[in-house]
Every structure is written in structure tokens, then in C-alpha cells.
Amino acid sequence: MPAVEDRPYQPIEAYALLSNCEGCALVARDGAIDWACLERFDADPSFSRLLDRQRGGHFTIRPEGRFETARQYLSRSNVLETTFTTETGFVTLHDFMVGAEGGADRPSLMRLVTGISGRVAMIATYRPLAGFAESFAPLKVDGGRVTAPDCPSLVTSVNLSLDGDRAVARFSVEALQEQSFALYLADSPDALPDTPPDARALMEETRLAWALWTQDAAYVGPLAGELMRSALVLKGLTYEPTGAIVAAATTSLPEEIGGIRNWDYRFCWIRDACLSFYVLKKFGMSREAEAFFGFVSALCEREEGQLKPLYSIAGEADLSERKIAHFEGWRGSAPVQHGNEAAEQHQADAYGQVLDLLYLYDRLGGTLSDDMRRHGARLADISAAHWHEPDAGLWEPRKPEERYLHAAIMNWVALDRAIRLFGERPDWCRERDRIVAFVNGEAVHRDGYYPQYLGTDAVDAALLIAPMVGFPVDEAVFAHTVDVVIERLGHGHLVYRYRNDDGLPGHEGTFLLCAFWLVDALLWLGREEDARTRFEALRAMRNDVGLYAEEAAEDGSFLGNFPQAFSHLGFIHSALMLDLYEHGGRAAVQGTYADRSLRETDDRRAPCIAGGAERPE
């Protein structure tokens, strides 16, 4: 085995997610925690070797000799089990984050090493870094305890020794022997216990908490286990104190190796969160509803309806970008970013996403507060007044604004759902009809497809969602649009978002959500065989523990931030679309998200909001 400091960058697909719904960590196949933001998702990291293999911190536990690994999550949980196979025996490593509800004296993250057979020599290397600091803080080692300023503290059942800027423990385990490692957010020795807590008991408590959450699942079909894994990812990316859902657990994993398309995704995009919330509801997970509605309601109240496309997970709007110049980035892909200035863009589709969510909430039996009804009507007023104006588009290009068709369609959604929720108002009805006339008339390309924006030849995979939101597309134009997407944006079962200039140098990988959108569009058109073939190919792309990144290279290797909420919600949605189609044909996949949510099959019951009654379709 190479020395730890000589270890090359690991593929993105080598990682597994740990979460306690406040912070997160990524664990590689070789037992290394190379990324962790323990206090909250968008905090400065404690381990960051993911983005610089020399300067970044890490916490590695692995056998000293040669080994092979196999991994899985414990059933219906985010507790990770890694099995190391060595020449001298077998050992397991269980990794999990601990919920904060028990108080500040609980560890944030636990690692449990268990001997299975034989005798295996192990090495643990602890090298934290305070955020993106330019040098490692001095470690203080006292037996099985390690502290450092502004870093998490380690308490373990083995003795450690100082080796330069790292603490190292060498130990062996035989069958049934265990050694545990606990990370605490406190960096003061006085606040730490002398020994780690009972790791087995904490692991069972954590496993049970995740398993109890999964009991509400509405789908029991053949893909139940795989869809539950994606639902657990979405839950794991949810910030429990506010209900906000982050787009991904990482920052700056590149869309092109060596390129500059590296963004910070540890924030809540209104669009992503609404779509994630929708698929969780369709899958039967309803307990996150009130917290997320409170989050959106507070934003609407504060912004007076002028929603930004993204916010921090606690609602802050200032996400100014700064570059971490001394970090080289994953596989040399600089810059490493902290913050995301896309928060300053105007993305008009957000109004439709929020009103569609309100409509779904209402249809599933939820009761909208007077404040939310007032906010919803205000959003519809904004759409009616401004839908025809240019905006930045949902893909956040760094170029002048255009009249994007996707934005027009989502403004139609805002007006349509407002009319259904709050009643007809002359300006809402008039502008809703004008949008349909625009999209199906003036905006149609001379060759008979829907272009990305008015006056361009470019095509955009975002338009694949038009019939999914119930927009009255011209079916012939939409069918041709699907064919043009496959021809110009497709690569086998993979799909690019777009291929035209977006104001940035270089290029990006294929976008997994768009590939799932193509599955949905093909089903809507009745092209079931093609849809199923593509879905099965996408299903096979998940890594060994069932996770997706944002993008994929044409060879299938992962690109972009990881794990990505968009990709997992796309997988769940397409699977449930296929289930609907199998039981009811093309008619079953028509209509709005709310319409489809209320259609039951042999494998899925219709969800309802807790405390509300289901409503007939």
C-alpha cells in the first residue's frame, strides 16, 4: 500500500454519504473520510482531502497491509458498513453520524472497528484541518484523546502518538474485538469524556431512527430497496432545523476534470427543494412537510415574493463566492469555491415551483395557512406581470438574460396553480392563456421543435418536463423536441443539458436528471420500450452503495457534486412513472405532479399529509 500522503485522488463514485440531517461526511472505499462538514452542511470542512490530496485534512482507518473492500449500508439506514478482506483475516468498519437531539455531550460521528476472523493489523490516521486553513493546527495528543484549535476532537479506545501534523494509532483486532473512535465538535479537553461512548448502542439507536423514518414508504414494488436508498439520500441532504434541502453534500467537484466549472452546491435551491419535496411525498414521506413549508413561508414573507433561486440552509441570502486559491481542487480542477453567486440571478421558474408545491400540498390534504395563501397569490401576481421578460434560466449560464421557454412554462404553472387554489382572476387567466399562445406559437422553431429560448436554434433538455407539469404542449412539436434532444444532446442513454455557449470556457458532463427527464417524456409519448431501456441503463450507473453524482462523463464515470439531490429525485420519479405506466398505460402518466401522486397502483398507495384527509382526484 502507498503511504497515506501519497494516495491519489479517489474517483467520485468511490465515496459514500454519512449524515445526521445537520452535517455530513464522505467516506471512501479505503476507509478514509476525505470530506466532512460536521456542524452543518455549508460550514467550513474539518476534512477536505477530497479537494486537495496534500493540503486537505482526512481521517483514515484501514488495514496496514494489502486489502480488498466491500461496502453496504445497513438496511434502511445511513449507517455504512465496510468489510476489509486481508491476507490475515477479516474486519468491519461501521461509520455513522449521530443525531444532535441527545445534547452537546454526544459525539457527532462514530467509527467502530470489529474483528471478524483472524488477526488484522490496522492503522488510524487523524489529520484535521480548520476549514480551508493554509496550515494544519497543532495537535495535542493525550492517550486516546486528540484536540486542536477550531477542529473536532477525537476520543478513541486506542492510544495515539503524534507524527508531525497527524495523530496515528497502530493496533490489531482479532475475532469479536472492537475499537471505537468518536468525533466531538468541542475542541476543549475539558469538554471531552475520557473514553468513547458505547458505539454499538449508538449505532443501533441511529440505525433504528433511520429505519423508523422509512416506515411511511408508500411504494412496495420490485425497486423498493433501491428507491428507498435514494429517499434516504434526500432525507440525508435535509437540514433538520429548517427543513431546507441542499443540492449536494460537496463544493467544487468539477463538471470537467481540470476545468473551472466548479461550484458550491451546499445550499438550498428553491427549485431542487420543491422537486425533492414532491418525490418524497409521492414516495410517502410526509413528515418533512411542515418544516419545509415554514422555511418557504419565511422566505416569502421576508422577500415580499421576490424569491432568489437559492439560499443558505438557514435562509441567509448572502452567498458571496470566494476562491480557496491555495487548494488545487479534485484532480487539479481549480478553483475551489466557497459560496455561490447564482443567488443573485433572477430565475423566474421558482414561482411556478413554489405554487406547484402548494397545489400538491393542498391536493394531498394539507391546509394552507392564510400567510401561505397570501404569499402564493403574490407569486402569481409577479408571474402575471413579468413572465414575458428575460431571465437567467435555470441552468445559471454566465451570459445575458433571454426569454427562456422553460421559464415561460413554469410561469404558466404559477398562474394555473394559483387559479386552481385561489380562484379565477382576470389577469391570471389572461396571462396564462398568453403563455400557451406564446410557447405553442411564436416561440416554436421554424423546424417544428421547442427551442431553448426565443429566436435560437439551440435545444434544451429542461423542456422535457413541459407535459410533466401539465402544460398543454402541442404534441407533434413536443415529440419532435424529444427527437431533437436525443439527436443533439444524447450520448447513448446519457443526456447533456444543452450544447450551446453558456458564457464559460470548457464544457460539462452529461446531466443525470436530464436523462431521467427523457425517460419521463418518452413515457408521456407512449414510447415505453425506449423509456425502460434507458431507465435500466441509468439504474446500472449507481455506485456500489446506490449513490449518484450530478453528472457523468461519456464513459460513465461520475462528475460534479456528490451525492446530488437532483439525480436521486429523478431516479425515484422515473421509477414511479414506469410503475404508473405499467398499471394504467399512457393515460396514467398525464396531468400534473399532484394528479399522478393521487393515482394508486398495485405497488403504491397515494400519500396524504399527516392530519389531513386524502382528497379524491
Automatic annotation (TrEMBL):
It comes from the Bacteria. SUPFAM superfamilies: Six-hairpin glycosidases. Residues 227-574 form the GH15-like domain. Residues 10-157 form the Trehalase-like N-terminal domain. InterPro entries: 6-hairpin_glycosidase_sf, 6hp_glycosidase-like_sf, GH15-like, Trehalase-like_N. This is Trehalase. It comes from Methylorubrum suomiense.
